[in-house]
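Our preliminary data section would be incomplete without showing what the modeling component actually yields. Below, a chain of 348 amino acids is followed by its predicted structure, encoded as tokens that our downstream tools consume directly.
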Amino acid sequence: MSFGSPFMLVTLLVVPLAIGLYVLAGRQRMRYAVRYTNVDVLASVAGGRPWRRLLPATVFLLAVTTLCVAAARPRVHTLVASDRATIVLVLDVSGSMQANDVKPSRLAAAQQAIHVFLDRVPKRVRVGLILFAGVPEEATPPTTDHALVAQAVDDADVFQGGFGGTAIGDALAAAVKVGIASAGIQGTRGLAAYQPVAAPSQASTLVTILFLSDGHQNRGVLQPLQGAAIAKKAGIPVFTIALGTLGAKITNFNFAGGNNGSLFGGGPGLRQALAPDPATLHAIATATGGQFYPAKSAGAVQAAYAKLGSSLGRVPGRSEVTADFVIGAAALLLLAGILGALWAPRLP
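Predicted structure:
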């Protein structure tokens, strides 16, 4: 713990002074008791439980001590929102996201979960959105206007995504490019050969990628771990969420590639394309220093986004807790008053 006004701690000298005055007053009462001849009346006034007289005074002194500490503006070490933080959301909107193994559908569950995330993430943190299927596209640049991002998330179901499929590696590279551009870090041009110039420690404190996908890669230039290597070189952690179950199916959905499921790379691969690829997403998170979250239900994906919204975009810092000390002191003063009223000696 540290203090914004440490010189105010001198007010704590009030506490030993009050104790000294209390002891002195006690000695004066003892001298008066010796001169008082009616012992029965004196006993009824003094009471038979000395700790009852001491407890209200002790609680009162604790309240005074707490107020003195509050005057020094105490601060605790914690995670605080960073004005320079950027979070790039990457959302898979390929055809398999229409699968209804996650109710009401994978895409709808992901959209609801991102809204939870946007409610939790600090308002000062810039959030961007990339949508991808066969190709990635920047839906919104990193911005503190989280309502704009939320609107883009709601409109994600109209994104065409190139020629279908799932291009995880390209989406990762695009997210890195958007993230470090937002942080003011330079890099080489070109998606496939994109390489950040910044030192890893510079980017890692500024940019985080939150990546959700439900399928195996079947399109794109870069392989998933190649995209992860770009993020790792930039020092950007990637937090991945694998959405879906192995027994997934799609109902009432028109595949752009026809009945043979060519949208996913051919009929024989349809069942595989609908299943999530947790091994690859776990490897991406591990390689970049992020975390992996499997999500087989709408509740699971919302819980993951809620947890990340409460932790991402924050850096180690100090938070002032003066108000907490003032509230604690007020509670102690109230308790001291109640105890004093209940246990104060009364004349017969």
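The beta strands are 2-3, 74-81, 86-92, 126-132, 136-143, 207-213, 238-243, 292-295, 314-320. The first strand starts at residue 2 and ends at 3. Preliminary results of this kind motivate Aim 1 of the renewal.
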